[in-house]
Structure formats: structure tokens, C-alpha cells
Amino acid sequence: MIITNIETVPGRTIVEHYGIVQGSTVRAKHVGVDCVAGCQNTFGGELKGYSQLLEESRNEAMDRMIKQAQQLGANAIVNVRFGTSMITQGASEILAYGTAVRLE
């Protein structure tokens, strides 16, 4: 599966268009991570617990998007984007979306 954030795949021709595919996940903060993040926020530095949580969330959303595209028969997803929204205090959604296509 080819995944790209541009509208085409250089050197390849889109022969079938399946439409928008998406994958999302909703994740909540972990109390332990929150405590460590509070200390790091005071003293500075990367909030590694949150960085790891976001990376896992992006990967899960991508995997779900890819699965949906594969079910449609696509072999590529173009114009991929990410979005996020707060669902409730301490919980956010990560959304991955793009256009499923079949390349020659």
C-alpha cells in the first residue's frame, strides 16, 4: 500500500478512484503519564509519555484507514491528512483520512 500526502504518485497513473477513507481512535490521558508530564512541564523538556501516546494514536488511525482502503480494493491512499479534536476533558480523537485509489 502506497501512502502519500500529495495528490498523485509520481510516475504512476490512478486508474480507479474509491473515495475518502478514514481511520480514527480516541485516547485518554493516563494518570501516571499526567503526573510525570506535570513535573516535566515545570522543569522543561519533552513530554515523552504524551509523545508516545500521540505516536501510538497516529499509527492506530493510519492502520484503520489502510484496512478500509484495502477492503475497497485500493493499492494506494493519496492526499493523506491528520486531524485531531478534543472529545472530553482528557480525551482526544486522532483522525487519519485520504483518498483511496488503485494505481496501474
How many helices? The count is: 2
How would you write the strand order of the largest sheet? 1-3-4-2
The CATH class turns out to be Alpha Beta
> What is the N-to-C order of secondary-structure elements (H for helix, E for strand)?
EEHHEE
Into how many domains do the coordinates divide? 1
User: Which structural class matches the secondary elements?
Assistant: alpha+beta
Give the CATH H-level superfamily: Hypothetical protein apc22750. Chain B
Query: What is the number of beta strands?
Result: 4
Q: How many whole angstroms does the radius of gyration measure?
A: 17 Å
Q: Could you estimate the helical fraction of the residues in percent?
A: 25-40%
Low-confidence segments, ≥5 residues, pLDDT <50?
none
CATH topology: Translation Initiation Factor IF3
Strand content: 35-45%
- Provide mean pLDDT, rounded: 87
End-to-end gap: 13 Å
Q: Which sheet architecture does the biggest sheet show?
A: 4 strands, mixed
Second CATH tier, the architecture:
2-Layer Sandwich
Task: Name the overall outline.
Answer: elongated
